Every structure is written in structure tokens, then in C-alpha cells.
């Protein structure tokens, strides 16, 4: 029996409050309104930004919420006026939008979109509207999505139709971490052939940045992490060196300067730590180094000396790897199917929705790169 036009009752992992495990609950998912699609989530993964909102941020707004923003699914039904999608389409939702009509979407200089939820109330890490309720309470959809649920409703400007040949339990990772790191190297830093690079933080985002540096032709890629377990994995994606700051008494930027005749051409911070952001900047060559902030935190200001920039360094930030969301996701799925980018190699665990707290713990303890959570196994 068709579920179109009806409320769907399904299972979701609800984060009722910060700093607590999420709870599998039955939630109600309303039918899609105009311009929206309702999606059955097949697979999702935990990104550090979910963890940040649940456990780390000092801002405790935005609860209760259904976390999850790195997912893939199948369109169940569409709201009035939706022509781009049909029931049965394979899709990847994204936390940034691409309406194709606003001045940002029309400019090649940004991947921001004026219709993004972040432009309304960023501090709750969700849009102001939600189609989720549970026990009579409205539940936020984290980053406008909420993929830790069997069904979700998302505006069509935050959804991309993908090649039906793509396996959702793999390419769901292109919804955030891989595009973010890869694009930060290729699109934002614009890494050049024969250059030297340093990538700080070797989660999925940093490893994807390593992969991007290699794809761009970098000759030396120094991977930096305080967790020695990440060294082997970094080589898989193209790192030529691994440096653990804990193994050195000197500041890490001095170690890197010593290895590279003064500093790297490109550095990328993929941790979300303001001290590391400064180290990454200082690790880049004073004369022309480009340093990109990819990691996320809103807890502290970041300090530098003007002299760090004045001689020629450039400091940039990057959201979703600078990719315009729909174009970027479609392109990266194609690149995966053509074996031009790695995705499977990021997956270290596979689990079911009711094990989602395990997936969160694995990431918290640095024991996974990405754990795939099979929300609605096909
Ligand atoms: N800009 C964006 O669009 C965007 C998108 C996704 C994620 N993020 C952010 O990117 C960051 C990384 O996400 P992830 O999912 O890869 O996280 P992760 O937790 O899997 O990886 C972080 C890595 O940093 C390492 N690390 C911690 N402290 C360090 C230090 N002092 N020096 C060197 N390495 C250190 C950890 O050992 C770990 O390997 C997070 O801050 C996340 O919120 C940003
Ligand atoms: Zn993410
Ligand atoms: Zn737009």
C-alpha cells in the first residue's frame, strides 16, 4: 500500500539532550510539502560534526534532534511542484543547498546558497522547520537533514539524484566527509602538481584531503596526526610521510619547516582545533603558502600574528570542499564509479541502526574512519 501523502511512523535515533546517548524511538515523519522530497534512508555514517553537536559544543541549543548528515537513500514520495525527482530515485542529501537561482549559486566564486538553513539560525544546527515529531514533541533535523532515521523529508535544493549503479552503503560517504576533504585540496587550496602539502588530522575528512592532494599531483604529502594508528591508512590515500606531533619536542610547524626547506606550499587543517589551525598556517611557506581551515569549531577564536600573513601566506576556509552541492555530489559519484576516487577504503565498520551509539563511540575514541550504519538494509 502506498505511503504517499500519509504520515510515516518509523525508527530514528533521537538525541533528546546533549552529552547523552541517542535513543532509538518511533517517530512520525510528515508527508513532503511543496518543493520537498521524502526519502527512505538506506545507509548513513557518523561524521565528527554530529559528534561535535552532541558532545563537544558549548552551545547546547538544537535539541531534541535527529543527527546524521552523511546519508544515501531512495525517494519514497515527492511534494507538490517537484519535477526533478520521482519515487524510486537513488539520492544523496547534502547539508548545503544549491538552488541554482540565487546570486551565490550563479557565481563561480562560492558554493554557498542564499536559501541555506545556515543563513537563518545556525546556532541550532538545523533548519527552523522540521517534519519530525516524537511523543508529541517536534524534533529538529540536524543540518536540515536528520539521516539517523528510516525516513526524512528534505527540500529538493539539498538533494542530488545519483546514478542507480552506485551502492548507497558506500557513496553515502560522499554526502559530507569525502567531498569536504577532497574538494578542500582540489577546489579551495588548488593544490598544484609537484607541490608539497601537509594535512593535519586523518579522519575521513583529512584522508580525503590527502587523496585530493595526490590527485592534484602533489609530490610530497605529509600526514599529521596524534593517533599513530592513522599512519598506515594515510599511505593508502597517498601520504608520503607521517608525523606525530607527540614524537617531537619542537612545535610541529618547526618540524615541518625542517622537512621542507621552510614550509609546505599547501596545508589543510582537518581537526577542528584552533591551535592546530595556527600550526597549519605556520607550517606553510612564508612566501606563498596557502593554508585551508576545514575542521569545525565555534568554541574559540583563533589567533595569529599579522606577520604570519603579511609576507605572502594566504589563509582560507572551506565548506563542503568548495563544491556546489548538487554538481559536486553528482561528479564525485561518477568519479567513484569510474574508479577515479576511493570511497570503500574509508569504511572500517558496518552496523545496524540500533548500534548507532557504538558508531558514535568508535569515532569518539578514534577507532574508526567511517562506520556505515545500515538504516534500511536493501
Ligand atoms: N568544513 C566542512 O565542510 C566540514 C565538513 C565535515 C566535517 N568537518 C569537520 O572536519 C573535522 C574532521 O572531521 P572527521 O569526521 O574527519 O573527524 P575525525 O574525528 O574522524 O578525525 C579527526 C582526526 O584529527 C586527529 N587529531 C586530533 N587532535 C589532533 C592534533 N592536535 N593534531 C593532529 N591531529 C589531531 C584525530 O586523531 C583524528 O584522526 C571536524 O572538525 C569536522 O567537524 C568540516
Ligand atoms: Zn560532516
Ligand atoms: Zn542558491
TrEMBL record:
**Molecular function terms from GO:** alcohol dehydrogenase (NAD+) activity; S-(hydroxymethyl)glutathione dehydrogenase [NAD(P)+] activity; zinc ion binding
SUPFAM superfamilies referenced in this protein's UniProt entry, alphabetically: GroES-like, NAD(P)-binding Rossmann-fold domains
Q: Which keywords does UniProt give here?
A: Metal-binding, NAD, Oxidoreductase, Zinc
Q: Tell me the ranges covered by the Alcohol dehydrogenase-like N-terminal domain, including all copies.
A: 35-162
GO BP, one annotated term:
formaldehyde catabolic process
Q: Short name of one Pfam family for this protein?
A: ADH_zinc_N
Q: Keyword check for Zinc, yes or no.
A: yes
Q: Where is the Alcohol dehydrogenase-like C-terminal domain?
A: 204-323
Q: Which cofactor does it need?
A: Zn(2+)
- Listed GO CC annotations: cytosol
Q: Does the entry feature the keyword rRNA-binding, yes or no?
A: no
Q: Which family does it belong to?
A: Belongs to the zinc-containing alcohol dehydrogenase family.
Q: By what name is this protein known? A: Alcohol dehydrogenase 1-like
Amino acid at each position: 500500500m502506498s505511503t504517499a501523502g500519509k504520515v510515516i511512523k518509523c525508527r530514528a535515533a533521537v538525541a533528546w539532550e546533549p552529552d547523552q546517548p541517542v535513543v532509538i524511538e518511533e517517530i512520525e515523519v510528515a508527508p513532503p510539502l511543496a518543493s520537498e522530497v521524502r526519502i527512505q534512508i538506506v545507509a548513513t555514517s557518523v561524521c565528527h560534526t554530529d559528534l561535535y553537536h552532541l558532545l563537544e559544543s558549548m552551545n547546547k541549543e538544537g535539541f531534541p534532534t535527529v543527527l546524521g548528515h552523511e546519508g544515501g537513500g531512495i525517494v519514497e514520495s515527492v511534494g507538490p511542484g517537484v519535477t526533478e525527482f520521482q519515487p524510486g530515485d537513488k539520492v544523496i542529501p547534502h547539508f548545503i543547498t544549491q538552488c541554482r537561482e540565487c546570486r551565490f549559486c550563479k557565481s563561480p566564486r562560492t558554493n554557498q546558497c542564499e536559501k541555506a538553513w545556515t543563513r537563518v539560525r545556525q546556532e541550532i544546527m538545523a533548519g527552523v522547520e522540521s517534519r519530525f515529531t516524537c511523543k508529541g514533541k517536534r524534533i529538529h533535523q540536524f543540518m536540515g537533514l536528520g539521516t539517523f532515521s528510516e525516513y526524512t523529508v528534505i527540500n529538493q535544493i539539498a538533494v542530488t539524484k545519483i546514478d542507480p549503479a552506485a551502492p548507497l552503503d558506500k557513496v553515502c560517504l560522499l554526502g559530507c566527509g569525502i567531498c569536504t576533504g577532497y574538494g578542500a585540496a582540489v577546489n579551495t587550496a588548488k593544490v598544484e602538481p609537484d607541490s608539497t602539502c601537509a594535512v593535519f588530522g586523518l579522519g575521513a575528512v583529512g584522508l580525503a584531503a590527502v587523496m585530493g592532494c595526490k590527485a592534484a599531483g602533489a609530490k610530497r604529502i605529509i600526514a599529521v596526526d596524534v593517533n599513530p594508528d592513522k599512519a598506515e591508512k594515510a599511505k593508502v590515500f597517498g601520504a608520503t610521510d607521517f608525523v606525530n606531533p607527540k614524537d617531537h619536542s619542537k612545535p610541529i610547524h618547526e618540524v615541518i619547516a625542517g622537512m621542507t626547506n621552510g614550509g609546505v606550499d599547501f596545508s589543510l587543517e582537518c581537526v577542528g582545533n584552533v591551535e592546530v589551525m595556527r600550526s597549519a598556517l605556520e607550517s606553510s611557506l612564508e612566501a606563498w603558502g596557502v593554508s585551508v581551515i576545514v575542521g569545525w569549531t565555534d568554541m574559540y577564536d583563533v589567533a595569529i600574528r599579522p606577520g604570519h600573513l603579511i609576507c605572502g601566506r594566504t589563509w582560507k576556509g572551506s565548506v563542503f570542499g568548495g563544491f556546489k552541492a548538487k554538481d559536486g555530489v553528482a561528479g564525485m559519484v561518477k568519479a567513484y564509479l569510474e574508479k577515479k576516487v576511493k570511497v570503500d577504503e574509508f569504511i572500517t565498520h558496518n552496523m545496524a541502526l540500533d548500534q548507532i551509539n557504538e558508531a558514535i563511540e568508535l569515532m569518539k575514541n578514534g577507532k574508526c574512519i567511517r562506520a556505515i550504519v545500515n538504516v534500511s538494509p536493501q
